[in-house]
Amino acid sequence: MIEQRVRPWYVLRTRSRHEKVVVDCLRERSINAYLPKRSVVRRRDDRRSVVELPVFPGYVFVQPDEEQHAHIRYIRGSCGLVMTGATPAVMPQSELEAVKALVDSSAELQSSASLMPGQRVKVTGGPFAGIHGELVRAKGQEHLVINVQLLCSSISVVVDSDMVSAL
What we know:
Elements lengths: L8 E6 L4 H10 L3 E3 L2 E8 L2 E8 L4 E5 L5 H4 L5 E4 L1 E2 L2 E2 L1 E2 L1 H12 L15 E4 L8 E8 L3 E8 L2 E8 L3 E3 L1
């Protein structure tokens, strides 16, 4: 019996907001790619819309054949594979399956890698738009508490998490 070797999955870095372009280019070249996405409700003025956003912004999972490795560097929007030393970092199959299970479930996904406690942030909308501060803690799923320094004192305000961006 011939043992068939399972090809490993790798993590490919992309330019900002180019994940879908990269996946489309990879598929055109018959390179197996996976972009986990989550549904997010966006509020703009008086309307709400649901958009699909990557679970891991700036990253796509790829499973190339040995001869396809060279083609990955020429994909539009690609910044190269994530490396460990001089070799591409391998995504463990068990972790990828866990990501797929979470994405396929009906659970609401929230990625916390972009905003961490202690990080400098800016309020992008609402009555506090333009204020810079430090993220103190996440409070539930809908709000963030931000420490804002005004007049040499600290004020804590609770703002909607959709209205905050990292600096």
